[in-house]
Amino acid sequence: MTSLRKFAAPVIAILLFLAGWEWLVWVNGWPTYKMAAPSDLWPAFWKFRWLFLEYGWQTLWRTVAGLALAIVFGVAVGMVMGFSRTVRDGLYPLLVGFNAIPKATVVPILALMFVGQHDMNTILIAFMISFFPIAVSVSIGLSTLEPEYRDILRSLGASQVTVFWKIALPKTLPEFFGALKVSVTLAFIGTNLMEIISPHGRGLGALFDSGKISSDYPLMFAVLIALALLGIVLYYIVVALEKTFAGWAERAPG
Amino acid sequence: MPAHIELREITHAYQTDAGPLPVLDNLNIKMAEGSFTAVVGPSGCGKSTLTRLIAGLMRPDEGQVWLGGKMVTSPRPTVGMAFQNPVLLEWRTILRNVMLPLEIVGQRMSRSDQEARARELLSLVGLEGFEDKRPSELSGGMRQRASLCRALVHRPEVLILDEPFGALDAFTREDLWQTMARLRHEEKFTAVLITHDLRESVFLADNIVVLSGRPATSQYVLANTLPADRTLDDLYAQPATEMLAILRHQIQVAQGRAPAEPQEAAQ
After folding, report:
1. Do the chains contact at B90 and A157, CB–CB below 8 Å?
2. Are the Cβ atoms of A154 and B57 closer than 8 angstroms?
3. Cβ–Cβ contact B103 with A under 8 A
4. What are the residues whose beta carbons fall under 8 Å from the beta carbon of B184, sequence distance 6 or more?
5. Which domain holds residue A48?
6. Contact flag A155-B90 (C-beta cutoff 8 Å)
7. Residue A243 needs a FRET pair 20 to 30 A away by CA distance; which of A31, A148, B213, B239 works?
């Protein structure tokens, strides 16, 4: 019953949303250049199905690569900041300032810096936009660890490394996954930003751009839907990972 | 009898932004092997600092801590600790929580021996059947019982208790006192108990050390005259009531609320 509800509720919500969208376009009699209806999208998907598959895959792997980089870097920075007050005080303004820069302004800079390295540039933007929540959450998780948690192992002569692996790291996992859920969608935005802005790009963002250039409005909407689907898939992969590695943090219902 | 734990002329201050904050001043305490010592005193008089010094988690500015004839300079695996916060690891079952210290110091024990040892302790404190539960499924008192098991699982020579029953309600606390007395009967250790509860100190300890206000020194030591097989009822009759009155007076002296001259009751 619960599994049926878990599956059926979102499906029904999506169907209702599509029906409402279709109705809105139909009742207003909007042409496709104003607003395409869901029924206009199928032909666009079908016509460009191979491009969708190819570009969808490119967008996906670049996002995942950028996110992986963000995890490695974010966890490393978070660890250093979590364990050292001095580093934390020193790095915070730098990190916040970096995060405050709109990444759209970084795109042309990167494009000039690494001319033609489209894959690398895209991954870098995805990485830059998504590491901040991870670094902050890991540093907060580690720095708010109650001293008693450390003491139960330290009093036995355990090393800092042991304390980290047995206590600090697992204890930080719920915060980490919370940040990862934010980061995964951010990385996705970063990838598309690069794909849309940079000329001769590839990936779904570039497909959107070419739809814009050729005034193929249904194609533009179809790309948006494809992006949303990919975003949902990535998000639920993170949720599945969270259930596996930090499922203990979820209280049993009732 | 040679002291098992000895604090010699310990003076310590914390470095704060407003300058050094002295917490301990020429503190001397001796504890015999197998004895149970309670340390009471006003809030903020450095009692918790004392536990960290004995555990070797920090070193005093002056003076030494001796443990079994050796000077303590670093943490040692022959110590077990329990705190007011049970600090159980939520991602582990109760059994695996209790076994945690053996992952650090129990290399010579086989896995099945480790598990048997943890189960033995859990049943001793009345947690049989809860081995596979998560800490969040247990009540506060049960979590504290599990925390005591974890402190004892590696058969430490010294058990350090930093207000372990402080956050429990009065009835649960009395249950835990009896559990503690049973553990003391079954296991062999020298115990140091930091507490704010005078009844608790009289029920559990052989000697009760009253610390003065900050910076703290040993102001008064009371030798408990209750028999070893004391019951909770004993706390409400002589000689316990008299000892409680003395301790209460000494705390007030430490707080600076009463003159230090000996009461008629004190010897």
Report:
1. no
2. yes
3. yes
4. B36, B191, B204
5. 40-245
6. no
7. A148
- Say whether B159 sits in a helix, a strand or coil: strand
Closest chain A C-alpha to B136 CA, distance in angstroms: 8
To the nearest whole Å, the CA of A241 is away from the closest chain B CA by 15
Say which CATH topology domain B1-78+160-267 has.
Rossmann fold (3.40.50)
Is residue A254 assigned to a domain? Answer: no
Phi–psi pair at B11, nearest 5 degrees: -125, 130
Listed by start position, the domains of chain B span 1-78+160-267, 85-155
Note whether residue A203 is domain-resident: yes
A9 domain residue, yes or no: no
CA distance B73 to B75: 7
Q: Is the pLDDT of residue B21 over 80?
A: yes
How sure is the predictor about A184, in pLDDT bands with cuts at 50, 70 and 90?
Answer: very high
How far is Cα B2 from Cα A51, in angstroms, rounded to an integer? 85
Nearest CA in chain A to B56: A155
Inform me whether the pLDDT recorded for B42 exceeds 90: no
Q: Is B167 on the interface with A (CB under 8 A)?
A: no
Instruction: For chain A, give the number of residues.
Output: 254
Most confident of A3-7, A250-254, B176-180: B176-180
- The number of distinct structural domains making up chain A is 1
* A114 within a domain of the structure (yes/no): yes
> B-chain residues within 8 Å CB-CB of A152?
81, 87, 100-101, 150
Give the one of A146, A166, A251 whose C-beta lies nearest to B87's C-beta. A146
Residue B99 confidence class, pLDDT cut points 50, 70, 90: very high
Structure tokens at B61: 């500015």
- The tally of CA atoms less than 13 A away on the side-chain side of residue A145 is 28
- Please report, rounded to a whole number, the percentage of residues in chain B having pLDDT higher than 90: 45
CATH number, domain with residue A108: 1.10.3720.10
* pLDDT at residue number B213: 80
For residue B108, the SS3 value is: coil
